[in-house]
Amino acid sequence: MKVKVLLFFVFALCFSQFAFSQQTKVEVMPTKTLPNPISSPDAISSETKKSGYLIAPGDIITTKVLGEPQFDFVATVDEDGRFQVPFFTQGVMAKCRTEREIRTDVTQLLSKYLKSPEIGVNVERRSRPPVVVAGETRKQLEVDLRRRATLLDMITLAGGPTKEAGGLIQVFRPNPPMCNDRDAATVWTADNSDGADVPMRLYTYSNLKSGKEESNPEIFSGDLIIVRKAPPVYVIGEVLRLGEIPITESGLSLTEAIAQSGGVSREAKTKNITIRRLKDNSKERELIAVNYDLIKKGKQKDIALQADDIIEVDKAKKSIGQTILEIATGTLRSTANMIPQRIAY
């Protein structure tokens, strides 16, 4: 009795696995009333276009009919967006349609010759250029889109922004989406005011997670995404680490810049720090004097830095008492010692 039960269980398991494998290998769609498969893409509902990969000219469609190899075929979608099915004179419209819709259309056509044909369709995507993600991201990517994707999706795939990123993201759209009638807002125009020929829009990384479409747009094949590097400021003089500090999306204040420079040295003149700032539309700089001591005490407002600011921390002049102390301890070099001696050899 136990042997019979075991054999029955094994048979049922094998049958269920066979049925599942048949379903995943060939997905059969029920025949239903559809737009004429020889129609134009304009006849396709916008609701359909919102899901799945949308076929375009240049894609290769491979179709296999279960148990009827004479009906198998491979076809390339032509420039008009159509492909040919054997034994039929008129082409099937594929442009801006999904693989599932094409499968249903071919099933409907072959039903004239076959009873309940089971058809598998595969689309080899050759029509779309990749999305390029570059700039200040952890990975530089070329992404072949197979589904709907947003700007945040692409930045996440690239590993997110680096520490040097400034939070500003440029999205260039060299070509309009091929199936742009699903949303007129996806067709961008170039801003001729700055002489740019390629349509481009700016976004900020902090707004991508807001959930608003205008802050996190849909990305299309061929789009170029550049995460901009943060503009720098330069800290020189009496600080522990000289160098360049990026202004991130949250901004950068004078106290933050000095802190990132390791702080000031003991000889720093903190009562009068100079900020050299570029004048508008000019290469000349204006000088801004800041009392860093008062800022630390909260008696003066901190200064928000701007791109390319130069923060100069001067060395404080020594007092007479400090000079006498250095002479007494031998830490002050005489002028004579500082001048090299000339000798004959």
Overview of the structural elements:
This protein has seven helices and 17 strands. The strands form five sheets. The chain has a five-stranded mixed beta sheet, with helices on one face. Strands 14-13-17-15-16 form a five-stranded mixed beta sheet, with helices on one face. A three-stranded antiparallel beta sheet has the order 2-1-5, with helices on one face. The protein folds into three domains: 26-124, wza like fold (2-Layer Sandwich), CATH 3.30.1950.10; 131-229, Outer membrane lipoprotein wza domain like (Outer membrane lipoprotein wza fold like, Roll), CATH 3.10.560; 232-313, Roll (Outer membrane lipoprotein wza fold like). It has helices at residues 2-25, 99-110, 151-157, 254-260, 292-296, 320-329, 335-338; strands at residues 60-65, 73-76, 82-83, 92-93, 119-124, 131-135, 141-143, 149-150, 165-172, 200-204, 218-219, 224-229, 232-237, 243-246, 273-278, 285-290, 310-313. Helices cover 20% and strands 22% of the residues. The longest helix has 24 residues, at 2-25.
